[in-house]
Specification:
The complex is a heterodimer. Chain A is an all-beta fold. Chain A is built from no helices and 11 strands. In chain B, the strands form 3 sheets. In chain B, strands 2, 5, 6, 10, 11 and 12 form a 6-stranded mixed β-sheet that branches. In chain B, strands 3-9-8-7 form a 4-stranded antiparallel β-sheet, with no helix packed on it. Chain B contains no helices and 12 strands. Classes of the chains: A mainly beta, B mainly beta.
Chain lengths: 114, 117
């Protein structure tokens, strides 16, 4: 079975550029999560969707960040404009809504903003 | 608010030693879930175990075992006869009950385990 698929695996871009990270959850999963991992803050939730609807976006750092889930099989996390402090590993995870099934994580996108 | 504390930042052991990774959590919920994830040097997050707050039975899976003690709000992880392949960062995480509508994970800061040959 295919796991959570994230693309790209690595992204290096200059500050001010728009960055789009993509995620394909596991088929049949209806909850999707975006996390960010940094040395300073560890692993933290950015936003999560249930049945394609954003439920909790309290972790989104600021208006430069936006996330969408147009359908059950695809989500994007966009940063515009990007800044060096956005450099991190961004993970996408998915699960079924059934009570707190384990979240399955993608391999992450390592983002470097120069 | 929920919180997960992993006080051990880094542990170094020699192969075949037993090692215990500590995890202490805080939550106001009576129903919650606890998890352990492994992050090897390659960077992915690998699910190891999930326990719910009503099940305090210890669990063993091969060389791995978990000790859940509600009285001390701890969910410790022991690796018996450690191997070099166990070298990774291990994260403990907490998820509140689905009733609250919040199923996201709150992670601890992780414990880096180095197993020397």
């Amino acid at each position: 079975d295919a796991g959570v698929i994230q693309s790209p695996r690595h992204e290096v871009t200059e500050m001010g550029q728009e960055v789009t990270l993509r995620c394909k959850p596991i088929s049949g999963h209806n909850s999707l999560f975006w996390y960010r991992q940094t040395m300073m803050r560890g692993l933290e939730l950015l936003i999560y969707f249930n049945n394609n609807v954003p439920i909790d976006d309290s972790g989104m750092p600021e208006d430069r960040f936006s996330a969408k889930m147009p359908n059950a099989s695809f989500s994007t996390l966009k940063i515009q404009p990007s800044e060096p402090r956005d450099s991190a590993v961004y993970f996408c995870a998915s699960t079924q809504t059934v009570t707190n099934q384990p979240q399955h994580f993608g391999d992450g996108t390592r983002l470097s903003i120069l | 608010a929920q919180k997960v504390t992993q006080a051990q930042t880094e542990i170094s052991v020699v192969e075949k030693e037993d090692v215990t990774l500590d995890c202490v959590y805080e939550t106001r919920d009576t129903t919650y879930y606890l998890f352990w994830y492994k992050q090897p040097p390659s960077g992915e997050l690998v699910f190891l175990i999930r326990r719910n707050s009503f099940d305090e039975q210890n669990e063993i899976s091969g060389r791995y075992s978990w000790n859940f003690q509600k009285s001390t709000s701890s969910f410790n992880f022991t690796i018996t006869a450690s191997q070099v392949v166990d070298s990774a960062v291990y994260f403990c995480a907490l998820s509140e009950s689905a009733d609250t509508g919040r199923r996201a994970l709150t992670f601890g800061s992780g414990t880096r385990l180095q197993v020397q040959p």
